[in-house]
Write a structure and sequence with these properties.
The complex is a heterodimer of chains A (70) and B (153). With 70 residues, chain A is of the alpha+beta class. Chain A is built from 3 helices and 3 strands; from the N terminus they run ααββαβ. Chain B is of the alpha+beta class. In chain B, helix 2 links the parallel strand 1 and strand 2. In chain B, helix 5 packs across helix 6. The chains are: A alpha+beta (70), B alpha+beta (153). Strand 1 of chain A pairs antiparallel with strand 2 of chain B.
Chain lengths: 70, 153
């Protein structure tokens, strides 16, 4: 799958099972108690790049809610 | 979830909202095709839904979101070492509140020199279902989002 295909499939254009169900992969997510994978992130207001690890290192515990407007 | 962030901020608990993809795209809030658009949608989330926590964006291809299971509204809790200690396939303030209270107590017990060893537990939590609010949210995305959700289930 090309990068552009991945972007279009991940950002599906309609909420139909064939398009959203393939992304429901919670059972394959990282295990608790093991080192978590790190990724770059961008601040919404400043557009500055940071990382998930920079976020979790900032506090004793960090709550991360995933979601969007819709 | 904003209230939970405020409640525990003084206990050195951070809280962010990680912007992923549009789960229910519609005419008003369509699917994402650029990072510029993703920044715009994130600021609309802040302004319209009143998210007071810092909002961070994942890449356009959802690399982080996909690696963590791609659920539309899940919550994870990490410790400072980068170890996930809680994951939930749906976000619920009561569940997160309960978990943070427990982990803060663990920290306190460790400071009191208790010897503690981690173990894994699975638990089924329960959340309120506010159908009226949910459909109002879908309608805000555009009429197509309402129709597609009804057709899907």
């Amino acid at each position: 799958m090309s990068d552009q295909d991945l972007i279009e499939k991940y950002n599906y254009d309609e909420f139909v099972p064939d398009k959203f169900m393939p992304w429901m992969r919670f059972a394959e997510s990282p295990n608790l108690g093991e080192t978590a994978p790190d990724f770059p992130l961008w601040h919404a207001e400043t557009q500055e790049e940071t990382s998930l690890s920079a976020i979790w290192k900032s506090n004793l515990y960090t709550i991360v809610e995933f979601g969007s407007f819709t | 979830m904003n209230k939970i962030a405020d409640k525990y901020a003084a206990d050195d608990v951070g809280s962010i909202f990680l912007y992923t993809h549009e789960a229910h795209p519609g005419e008003v809030m369509p699917e994402l095709r650029s990072m510029e658009q993703k920044f715009e949608h994130a600021l609309k989330l802040r302004d319209i839904y009143g998210v007071t926590r810092p909002i961070l964006l994942d890449s356009l291809d959802g690399a982080c979101h996909r690696r963590y299971g791609s659920m539309p509204n899940m919550t994870w809790i990490f410790n400072r070492s980068g170890t996930p200690i809680y994951k939930s396939d749906w976000s619920d303030a009561n569940s997160v509140d309960n978990a943070i209270a427990y982990f803060l107590d663990v920290t306190k017990r460790r400071r009191n020199k208790e010897r503690l060893a981690p173990f894994r537990v699975e638990r089924l939590d329960y959340r309120n279902q506010d159908q009226e609010q949910f459909y109002a949210g879908l309608a805000r995305n555009g009429p197509r989002a309402v129709t597609e959700f009804k057709d899907a289930f």
